[in-house]
Amino acid sequence: MEHAHALGPILTARAGYLWLIPLFPLVGAFINFVFGWRFERSGRKRLVHVVGVGAMALAFAVAVCAFLQLRALPDEHRFLQDTLWNMFTAGRVTVDLGFALDPLSMMMVLIITFIGMLIHVFSIGYMWDDEAKAYWRFFGWLNLFVFSMLLLVMGDNFVLMFFGWEGVGLCSYGLISFYYTDREKAAAGMKAFVVNRFGDFGFLAGLLLLFWGLGGAWAASGKAHGPTYEPEAALHATAGASTAAESQALAPTVEVGEGQVVKVGPTLNFRELRDQVVIEKTGIAEHLKDQKVWGFALLALIGICLFVGAMGKSAQLPLYVWLPDAMAGPTPVSALIHAATMVTAGVYMVARLNFIFALSPAAMAWVAFVGALTAIFAASIGFFQYDIKKVLAYSTVSQLGFMFIGVGVGAYWAGAYHLLTHAFFKATLFLGSGSVILGCHHEQDMRKMGGLKKYMPITRWTYLIACWAIAGFPWASGFYSKDEILWKAFTSEHLALFGVPTPWLGPAIYLVGIIAATGTSFYMFRSYFMTFTGEYRGGAGHAHEHGEDPHASVAAAHHADPHGHHDAHPQPDPAHGHVHAAHGAFPHVGAAAHDAHDAHGAHGGHGAHGGLPHESPWTITLVLSVLAAGAVLVSLLGIPAAWTGHEPLLEEWLKPALTAEVAFAEKPHSWEFLFQAIGVGAGAVGFLFAWLLYKDGKSTVPAALKQRFLAAWTVVYNKYYVDELYDLVVIRPSLAWSRALSWFDGHILDWLVNAVGAVTRGFARIDGLIDTYVVDGAVNAVAVLTAEGGKSLRRLQTGRVQTYLYGALAGGLAVILLNFLIH
Amino acid sequence: MLHVGLHHFLVLGALLFSLGVLTVATRRNAVGVLMGVELILNGANVNFVAFNHWVTGGISGQVFALFVIVLAAAEAAVGLAIVLALFQTFRSIDVRTADTMRE
User: Fold this and answer.
1) What is the pTM of this model?
2) Which secondary-structure segment (H or E) carries A277?
3) Is residue A794 within 8 angstroms of chain B, CB to CB?
4) Do the beta carbons of residue A176 and residue A326 sit within 8 Å?
């Protein structure tokens, strides 16, 4: 990989206020968690969302200030640094509580705070009448979620990133299990948490490998160091440092010209890492490339391990299963998870570490490959879902796949751009679906919607715009990001699998991607047509139709009762729960349906509206309008160079952060136009099919097709039985394994422990006997002998002078006699 | 005619000494014990004088004898005082009663 121009170390600018950005949501969360229930109980419920939204607004305001400051700086200076204090120092490694903003994290912070703020506003309308009666808890978690995500993107080192990484996992658990009295929803939260833990393990493993690989003292080559480097001195240096300054002084450095010195060696700081890897003169990049672990290239291992972490957070195959279940949470949570936070973490991390990934074509190929597979896999599941939120969930998984294609083939800015556009249109879609669900009295099944455009015009238009964007039609943002990604995938020349360059992989990924894009367009417009066109189907029962659905539609069948029936028995009936229990260890289909059921039960008073859908309150429609406008306007940031002759604004903006240069084939612009046309064509094909099959809900073709391909339909409808597969492959073996271990523990280990105990007790008893009889006996014997001796000897002491005289005389006699004897 | 020589005196001294020891060892009466002590001292005196006369010459043995006599007088005075104290304490001068030092 050749660098067109030599890169220098990042020049930082101080911005002492950055800590305020995560602080506000944290304080908001604190206030709501500690005092929120008092506000709510004392009738000042309004305060809860004033605090929640206020914290977000303040954070956004500070973020905008930071953006303005960053923008005013020259390109190579665009790095704001705010170090609060040193958290710990170990040898040459220092970890600060420090925040940093470069163009990439700036973009993320703006997305998180802006869309997060809008979602907070949306939640006011959505959660006000919620039956859980925990308005404060909802806003507390929401704020904490945003705080964690801000920590993740703003932390200037891996430790803070990992705090945030785990924090969003925790908060997603708290929010998905928001209705924790429902076992299935609580289980969905747990599933999200556990699946994420799998990914986190990979992240941690990759991080430690990277840390290890940067070390040079044990490496044979020693290239990592400058000419003045003394290995022994460096080794000894690990001893002394106790403060950051000392540590800094001890760290091995390489001079890279004009008095610029770069710290090399193991580090947790992104900037230090970036400087030493990116600047060729330090030799660190070569050093990393040369290393192998058990015959595998170290860099590929690092990249793949880190990507496993990204898989967990960003819901890629095979760790995507938690995301659809995350629908168990309230809809704003889904929007927050899917649009602004959490799932973008993985993409962000790969983009942040672009310089590491770029060094390993194998790791990048895997990222792109898994991304493409996920994109088409999740899109196909989305085809036949009836739950509007499920469609969107699988759409998110699929779109995340696109982002990974982008960052995987080396088009980091395109991946990040898709992240941005997706944040807008997916937030619109999710909040739109939330508005629909609210308007239809907590109905989520699209078969019981239809014709809503009459009742909810604003929701309908915003939803349509977002569909337009996600399907990839020009003038809405999705087109620019998706086409850029696919174009870059096609021209990619960087990928390699198992050390062999694979020029065919890029076009293959392109092909998969374009099919997935067609599918995206199809299922999104299907959801649009089913929801908003035709006649409203909410009033009548559709039990006969549901009855035909095998397996997974059991929950839906229950669900299909007429509304009046629901109100008659608001408690979930036991048979319903039983069906789910038999269905598998993870609640998937059931969770969302159950949600609606319960919500409706508690919402009996809603029937007074006459059962017809209604438009949502102004907070919701306002948010939808803003987001839909955003979904169109962010397209301005990514108008391709082929159109204007000027590189896209966002690419230019992100350039200082995404320094890795990856080889792409040079193709004339005419090719690019052709591919854009193909992209639009793919979207149009998807739209056309959706229009033909689902427009106004009149066509009988879908039902006929379903009958014709019932087996295939069943497999896809049940999400390829992946959850069941997990149940079979992961959960049951682990349960069996734990049972075996439990048996082993209960029988073998306990037996061993007991045996050891028994032997010890036997020994102790013998020892006790010895002690009692031998040792005590000896001691007592000495005592008794002494006492008896004393008793008998005391008779000699008569106190009479004459007795003593006898003694003296006897002594004298004895001396005399001895005298005779000796001679 | 019996010739009186050193041996006779030595035998006399030994007899006196032995009788003195016997008296000290066996008498119950404290005054008797003191008298036994006088016998012992005088047995020794006989030896001093006899050896002075027959063996060494000069007067040193006789001076020793005189010293012993003075010493015996002093001893008798102290001894009798002890006997008086003994009597006042135990209302008896039997030496067997004075055994409170036994334990």
Assistant:
1) 0.72
2) helix A270-278
3) yes
4) yes
Task: Take residue A267 and report the two structure tokens written for it.
Answer: 């580090």
Helix (H/G/I), strand (E/B), else coil: A615:
coil
Q: Are A806 and B25 inside 8 Å of each other by CB?
A: yes
The answer to whether A800 contacts chain B (CB < 8 Å) is yes
Kindly provide the ipTM of the predicted complex, given to two decimals. Answer: 0.85
Structure tokens at A318: 């095979």
Cα A169 to Cα A199: distance, rounded to the nearest angstrom: 11
- CB proximity under 8 Å: B 1-30 to A: 21, 24-26
CA–CA gap between residue A467 and residue A177 (Å, rounded)? 29
- pLDDT tens, residue by residue, B25-46: 899 899 999 999 999 999 999 9
> Nearest CA to CA, how far is A785 from chain B (Å)?
20
Residue (of A360, A345, A392) closest to A168 by Cα position: A345
For A473-507, what is each residue's pLDDT tens digit? Answer: 887 888 888 888 888 888 887 777 777 777 788 88
Which residues in chain B have Cβ-Cβ distances shorter than 8 Å to A801? 95, 98
- Output the DSSP codes for A97-143: EEEEE-HHHHHHHHHHHHHHHHHHHHHHHHHTT-TT--HHHHHHHHH
Q: Whole-angstrom Cα distance, residue A396 to residue A374?
A: 10
A799 touches chain B (CB under 8 A): yes
Q: Which two tokens stand for residue A762?
A: 């036997």
d(CA A164, CA A273): 19
pLDDT digits (tens, 9 = 90+) for A753-808: 999 999 999 999 999 999 999 999 999 999 999 999 999 888 888 888 888 888 99
**Nearest CB to B102 within list A799, A805, A806:** A799
Look at A798 and B102 and tell me if their CB atoms are within 8 Å: yes
pLDDT digits (tens, 9 = 90+) for A618-662: 888 888 899 888 888 888 888 887 777 778 888 888 888 887 777
Q: Which chain B residues are Cβ-neighbours of A800 within 8 angstroms?
A: 95-96, 98-99, 102
Higher pLDDT, A668 or A67: A67
Of B25, B100, B102, the CB nearest to A802: B25
B95 touches chain A (CB under 8 A): yes
Round to whole Å and give the CA distance between A652 and A212: 34
pLDDT surpassing 70 at residue A586: no
Residues of A within 8 A of B100 (CB-CB) are 799
